[in-house]
Amino acid sequence: MDVTPKKTRKPARPAIPASNDAWRATNLGRLLNQAVQRFEESVLAKMVAAGHGQFTLSHISVTRNLDVQGTRATEIAKRASITKQSLGELVLQLEKLGIVMREPDPSDGRAKIVRFTPQGMLWLEQFHQAVEETEAEIAAALGPKLYLALKEGLLGYTGRHQT
């Protein structure tokens, strides 16, 4: 009599039907992410066409989180969800491009305030134009009523208000 235990096989996992996986491609988070990517690619292409091809989305993330009157470097890093070290490198690159400058914070000499230079303010105006053109393209694609509803809905969801 053979006393060797029989090998038992684990039952195979049932395959997930493809129809149950569709939510991954159509959930709101993924769609919003894809919309942001398309929006940023459009804005960046417009900036390249305006002669600003040396800028990256990382640079734009810094300038997008920089208040016109200036912002502490630590606050920009927080808003942009990047490390202070990464921000420091990006600010250095933007300084070399003449877009921003750093100066000591008058209330705390250890901290730095990042400000747009006069050239940076001109860049910001071109960026504003690129954003407006991209938003106009979205409005044309969605129709003005749906575009406004989308924008108002996102403003409400993010806890911001139109100013």
From TrEMBL:
Pfam families: MarR. This is MarR family transcriptional regulator. Gene3D superfamilies: Winged helix-like DNA-binding domain superfamily/Winged helix DNA-binding domain (1.10.10.10). It comes from Herbaspirillum frisingense GSF30. One of its GO terms (molecular function) is DNA-binding transcription factor activity. One of its GO terms (biological process) is response to stress. Residues 25-163 form the HTH marR-type domain.
